[in-house]
Amino acid sequence: MELSIFHDKDLAQRILQGIKREAEKIGREVKLMHVCGTHEDTVTRSGIRSLLPENVKVMSGPGCPVCITPAEDIAAMMQIMRRAREEGEEIILTTFGDMYKIPTTIGSFADLKSEDFDVRVVYSIYDSYKMALKENNHLVVHFSPGFETTTAPAAGILKEVIEKDVDNFKIYSVHRLTPPAVEALIKQGTVFDGLIDPGHVSTIIGVKGWEYITKEYGVPQVVAGFEPVDFLMAVFMLLRIIRKGETKIENQYTRVVKYEGNVEAQKTMEMLFDIVDAKWRALGIIPKSGLELKDEYKDFEIRTFYKVKPPKLPDLEKGCICGAVLRGLALPTQCPLFGKKCTPRNPVGPCMVSYEGTCQIFYKYGALF
Amino acid sequence: MCLAIPAKIVEIKDNVAMVDFGGVKREVRIDFVPHVKVGDYVIVHTGFAIEKMNEKAALESLRAWEEVMKAMEE
């Protein structure tokens, strides 16, 4: 597929001219929020903030699922590993590379591995499942974080696990839903004029999944792709909606996102998961934002078999402003620890660990604007 | 973790496809895109194809927006 057009410099320039004209007509400061680590990567890598007119600000919201995974859940999973060992069972714990390194005040999964526990990094829950089939004398537990885009694959694999009755594969679900977090930000007072919706979450939930944010809160939205031209086009479309005083949602990422989303994936997720109130690290409890396995599928959730009580942990180390960064209220460069005490090699807060974390993206591309 | 990228389907066996990420080949699950064929492009996220790509829609919408921008210049 010919994607080079989405990197095309001349086209990007023409869109920027369009953005400038719209921004001039609007004539006041406009804040646009995105909620996706991959969007932040596009914005920072391409220097988009520095290209936009002065009155157009791009803010970064809670777009990093591993950053918002509660420290207590990481601690609980560690306790389960220890308890299992005490009882004579060696669990194989799998998770994603960035989740593996997320710090808590009592350490990370990487630290657990250094204590000789079997912790393995995987690219996909499919890899964990294959591991369980191969090493069927061990229990394989996938610590499963992620928004809708990652929940769909988890649901796909679990469906097969259930159908084939594979009894040595379980998950620890810390899945979260994106639109309720946006809703919570609005209610908590983060102010923005338009929302740039994450293209791959939207691939699953559709344009439809976001409509209520526009209807109930009057926030215009554009679903956007991840190439520089996609993002600029989304900014242009959003400014145009704002300038005309409309409240509506449009889809820029038409090559992938359908209005109804991926119905097949939605059905599988709905079959397996209940929506519950859930904690987001540094953001607090967000109503109806978490996913846990339904009662009839509880045998595939590791917490059914190990009841542990993790200690109450602070969300963040003292001085870390990851919470404000996740709310779109601050940029990493406003943090006194950024680039000094806190670096990707030695991260203090979760936003510096993940390649989707705003702090790591800023550090990586040297974005000091 | 949330990085999803386009890949071309080169082989299909039941609900697993071999895809080509511009040189790197990998097995991915196609449970959620049941109608894909060899040669189609899909978006792959954590080992799952989550949607088939629609090139025609992409180019049509770009052209439409270019018209809008051209009209603004005039």
Protein model, in words:
The complex is a heterodimer of chains A (369) and B (74). By secondary structure, chain A is α/β, with parallel strands linked by helices. In chain A, 40% of the residues lie in helices and 17% in strands. In chain A, strand 8 (221-224), helix 12 and strand 9 form a beta-alpha-beta unit. In chain A, 55% of the residues are buried. The model of chain A has no long low-confidence stretch (mean pLDDT 95). Chain B has 74 residues and is α+β, with helices and mostly antiparallel strands. Chain B contains 1 helix and 5 strands; from the N terminus they run βββββα. Chain B has one helix at 55-73, and strands at 4-13, 16-21, 24-29, 41-45, 48-52. A 5-stranded antiparallel sheet of chain B has the order 3-2-1-4-5, with no helix packed on it. The longest helix of chain B has 19 residues, at 55-73.
Short note summarizing the structure:
Chain A has helices at residues 9-26, 37-45, 48-51, 71-86, 97-101, 109-114, 125-134, 148-163, 178-188, 199-205, 211-217, 228-243, 263-272, 322-326, 358-364, and strands at residues 30-34, 56-60, 92-95, 118-121, 140-146, 169-175, 194-198, 221-224, 249-251, 273-280, 284-293. By secondary structure, chain A is α/β, with parallel strands linked by helices. In chain A, the strands form three sheets. Chain A has a five-stranded parallel β-sheet with strand order 2-1-7-8-9. A four-stranded parallel β-sheet of chain A has the order 4-3-5-6, with helices on both faces. A two-stranded antiparallel sheet of chain A has the order 10-11.
Q: Which runs of chain B of at least 5 residues are low in confidence (pLDDT < 50)?
A: none
Structural class of chain B: alpha+beta
Residue share in helix of chain A:
25-40%
Total beta strands of chain B: 5
Task: Count every helix of chain B, treating DSSP H or I runs of 4 or more residues as helices.
Answer: 1
Cα-atom radius of gyration of chain B:
16 Å
Using only CA atoms, what is the Rg of chain A?
Answer: 21 Å
The biggest sheet of chain A, with number of strands, parallel, antiparallel or mixed sense and barrel status, is: 5 strands, parallel
**DSSP, total strands of chain A:** 11
Total of helices of chain A: 15
Strand order of the largest sheet of chain B: 3-2-1-4-5
- End-to-end span of chain A in angstroms? 34 Å
Order of helices and strands of chain A: HEHHEHEHHEHEHEHEHHEHEHEEHH
Global mean pLDDT of chain A: 95
